[in-house]
Design a protein that fits this description.
Blueprint: E1 4-7, H1 14-31, H2 34-39, H3 42-53, E2 59-60, E3 66-78, E4 86-101, E5 120-123, E6 127-134, H4 139-189, H5 239-258, H6 260-263, H7 268-280, E7 291-292, E8 295-296, E9 299-303, E10 306-315, H8 322-332, E11 338-346, H9 351-363, E12 368-371, E13 380-387, E14 390-403
Length: 407
Amino acid sequence: MSSRSDYLFNTERLYDFLLQRQRRMSEEVIAMNRDEILKMSEEDLCNYLVDRYSVQPPVMNVDAKEISDDRPIQVSRPSMWNDGRVFQVPAQLLVLSIPFEGDAQLFQLRPSSYSTRHCSAQVTHNEVQLRYEVTSNDKDRLENNINQDVGYLQSNVAQIQKDVAEYNHQLPSHVRQAVTSRKQLLLEQMNLVAGLNIPVRRRESASQTYAVPAIKRKPRIERPVVPKGSFQPEPAWPMEEYEHILSVIQNMSLVLERSPSAFANMNEEALRTHFLVQLNGHYDGATGETFNQSGKTDILIKEKDRNVFIAECKFWTGPGAFPECIDQLLGYTSWRDTKTAILLFNRNKDMSNVLEQIPGLVKAHPNFKQEKPGQMTDTQFRYLFHQNGDKNREFYLTVCVFNVPSS
């Protein structure tokens, strides 16, 4: 069993250790093969790097401390006459072991704030062992020394935990910055064009009938031009366009609330048409009649022969049918970074019960990868999925739930 006996919290600064760890993360990203980093799922890569370079601070279980060694020994003591002689005297060895979880090497590092009191201990992979050589029967003195040492450990470990928590909190943003910067640099080095216009343009005269956002953007789908090689660039629709489409869709809920009788007897196709009309008021290229290899979809925006936005309109008929809707979307996704949505219409009175079931049903799907931030309302949920047969090809799925009145 490996161990180290030394003064604790007495070598390099914890700050320098954490900074060096962050630098090694950046160096690993820089050293990655070009095709590997461009083809790999960005989410998976970032998660891997966060896991690899996160730090687990030590957490001591002081309540579980115990005497792990108790035996008579001989210890050396200098002569009381200060004449250079050394005598062997009888003593009692006590070793107090405190179990911990976390990174053992952090016990050697100085946190941002620490006590100057010295404490020598042996640190194994899961225990801190305090050693006491007792030459008298002064129990109170021994207890006082133990309490001071344990308090010293607890104080410094608490500060280490605070410093490490701040590092771990900031690490995901540093990882994301390192990965996105590296990918952008690689694309620039390959002389790739930053943008590729798709034939889906906002109309200048977009109707404001349903209180949609006033900002009009020109959606772009970016596909850089690359030389021959393993990496094949694919369209990536800007997130802001996805957000805009979802805001247009979400605003239709206001129409449903204000004119309930107009929608009471509508089926899926009729409701889909209302959403489609509103989207066509903002985009050229939205269609409800486009066919692909897997059949007919409900609301679709295409780039050349591939889908960049797909939405399915479905009535809620119970938890058993919902996974089939996700499977249907999977049949339409082909590009990396496709954006999708499920417009779920509920005619049951218990809307809260439907909303409670959505997260569990989505996360149970075998292609589910991650829950994502970006929920606009309490009736909207966003997730990251991977395509069938390729975990590096990901797409966003947003589930929008609408309460549709019954006749």
